[in-house]
Write a structure and sequence with these properties.
Chain lengths: ~260, ~325
């Protein structure tokens, strides 16, 4: 099976506190630790496991700047066969539809049976996979937490729905699936693995290579624009207990007792 | 504003989802004088009872009946909506697991803009819609300007717009004839119910809940010890289940269990809206987290900004001494 996984380089929110800069034009990015979007990492692991079962190749692709190459190498160290970087100044400021348009143009150059994305990334929009599928006229399923490959031209998939229930469907290939965390246990990538792929060539495709019309991507093509970042005015918020940890513990015990929290 | 506004009504077992009452409130933030049309897709008597209920809230209700709509398959419903919706429609959809499945692709097929997980609407300026979203798991908010001249699909976060007493004596129009062939390349098979765990977290008045801040599987013992000491049960947020440190049945959240404890002690939980969506009944919330900016402190009653790995064992010891 020919599998393409769309990945994104994002600030690692488990490692960073996200702070808005003075003018609200961006978050403070100076000290941020970046990594591959957590959902995408599950998608790559799933692709590798499918390939190891049924054969084929796994290609990872990202839309980003030169720094994004590092996450392609990381996913190749995990076991992806190929990486493709889609990069061009004309892509800057793309909205979700713009990113889907860029990816669609790359996909049109190849032949893929299965296209995976993470269910969502740092902006929480969860939109690119569904847009991409509609542009390609392929069927789509979001929040996928189970994939069963068979022999025919369909696969069986599970979607995570409300209450932890799982919605099972049959879907025709080729298709686009957005992958939910927890579908598998992504393998560990050691420094040795990354060294092994350090010199593998990663092709870079720009707007011209992809035949992307100038006005359809980038800030010019974006109907949806982020104007600023801000921290919403705090509501009441929690009463923060102050003092030594000993004093805090004592206050907390009294509060818990009064609310029935200690039996 | 001249663009027509539509609300997609989610329903189950003949009852409309709570979002049905919230979407009309969001719609009126876009245009206070709008006549909002509810679209209800389904089949049989259950569909009829939802349509009747909605006609008491929405001035117009479009009913689409087809056996293929008995279970909401996003691909089938997308086809129906593309057939029904006029050009430049403003379409509101709940941001749940169905809306996430439907809306991005719907916006492409309608050549409309798409704004996901909307938490606020600040109005319309010409054809520019001003909306509010959140990023980075709710750590920061953003103002969004959206060109909706050729229509827009808006996914609305549950609970972001509080239901009001919108009343109408609306007409139900049967649009089933325009639904199209209702065929899809993705076919629903069944819903597999969530596994039942060895502990029912929905039955406990006091929950000690662990999140990513617990750092390591072995540290869950710290939470268990506190729970045992105070007579509570250990629950958790999603990353703990993803890491397979606790079973799925212990997860609080929209994709896990909905709980209504009296006291909720959140250890190292950041407080994403998906997690808080599973916490009902207005419990007394204690948040212990070393990050003072964690969104959980916005909803908690009491906050402790300390490293839980050091503080919680100390707290547990103190309670034991006291007993």
């Amino acid at each position: 099976m020919e599998i393409l996984v769309c990945v994104k380089r994002v600030p690692d929110t488990a490692e960073n506190e996200i702070v808005v800069n003075g003018k609200g034009t961006d978050i403070e990015r100076g000290d941020l630790v970046y990594s591959v979007n957590e959902w995408d990492n599950y998608a790559v692991e799933e692709a590798i496991q499918i390939r190891d079962r049924v054969g084929g190749t796994v290609t990872v692709v990202t839309v980003g700047d030169g720094d994004s190459e590092e996450i392609l190498r990381r996913e190749m160290a995990m076991g992806a066969d190929k990486g493709i970087l889609l990069s061009d100044d004309a892509f800057n400021g793309s909205d979700g539809k713009g990113v889907a348009t860029i990816l669609k143009s790359e996909i049109a150059k190849g032949k893929y049976d299965l296209i995976l994305t993470g269910a969502q990334a740092d902006d929480g929009a969860a939109q690119v996979g569904g847009m991409l599928a509609a542009m390609l006229d392929m069927p789509y399923a979001s929040l996928v937490n189970k994939i069963e490959t068979g022999s025919g031209n369909t696969i069986k998939i599970g979607r995570e729905i409300e209450g932890g229930n799982q919605e099972m469907s049959e879907i025709d290939l080729p298709c686009v699936l957005s992958i939910q965390t927890g579908i598998n246990e992504p393998r560990y990538v050691g420094i040795r693995g990354i060294r092994k792929v350090a010199s593998v060539e990663i092709p870079v495709h720009g707007a011209g290579d992809l035949g992307v019309a100038a006005g359809s991507v980038g800030a010019a093509g974006a109907k949806v624009k982020r104007v600023d970042y801000f921290i919403p005015p705090a509501g009441e918020g929690a009463e923060i207990l102050e003092g030594s940890s000993d004093e805090i513990a004592e206050k907390l015990i009294e509060l818990l007792k009064s609310k029935g929290g200690i039996k | 504003m001249t663009q027509p506004i539509f609300a997609y009504i989610a329903h189950k077992n003949g009852v409309a989802d709570d979002s049905a009452l919230e979407l009309i409130v969001a719609a009126k933030k876009i245009d206070p004088s709008a006549s909002v049309t509810a679209i209800v897709c389904g089949n049989g008597a259950e569909l009829d009872s939802v349509c009747t209920a909605m006609s008491a809230v929405y001035p117009d209700v479009w009913k689409v009946s087809n056996p293929a709509l008995a279970y909401p398959n996003a691909e089938v419903i997308r086809g129906v909506l593309v057939n029904l919706l006029p050009a430049s429609a403003v379409t509101l959809v709940p941001h749940d697991t169905f809306g996430m499945d439907l809306s991005p692709g719907l916006s492409i097929k309608l050549n409309a803009a798409f704004v996901s997980d909307v938490v606020g609407i600040e109005g319309v300026d010409g054809a520019v819609l001003k909306a509010v979203r959140q990023e980075f798991g709710g750590q920061v908010s953003t103002h969004i300007h959206c060109d909706m001249a050729s229509g827009v699909v808006l996914n609305i976060r549950s609970g972001a717009f509080l239901a009001d007493d919108s009343k109408a004596s609306g007409a139900v129009t049967d649009k089933s004839g325009q639904a199209g062939d209702c065929k899809a390349k993705r076919r629903f098979i069944e819903v597999v119910a969530a596994e039942v765990g060895d502990v029912d977290i929905t039955k406990s008045d006091v929950l000690v809940s662990v999140g990513r801040g617990i750092e390591e599987q072995d540290n869950i013992a710290i939470a268990q010890e506190l729970a045992d000491t105070i007579g509570a049960v250990v629950s958790c947020s999603r990353p703990i289940v993803d890491a397979k440190w606790l079973e799925k049945a212990r997860q609080v959240g929209t994709s896990g269990k909905t709980v209504k404890p009296k006291v909720y002690i959140a250890l190292g939980i950041s407080g994403s809206f998906q997690h808080l969506g599973g916490l009902k009944g207005n419990p007394f919330i204690v948040a212990i987290n070393k990050n003072p900016k964690a969104p959980i402190f916005q909803v908690a009653d009491i906050g402790v900004v300390l490293d839980l790995l050091e503080f919680v064992p100390e707290l547990t010891e103190k309670i034991k001494e006291m007993k």
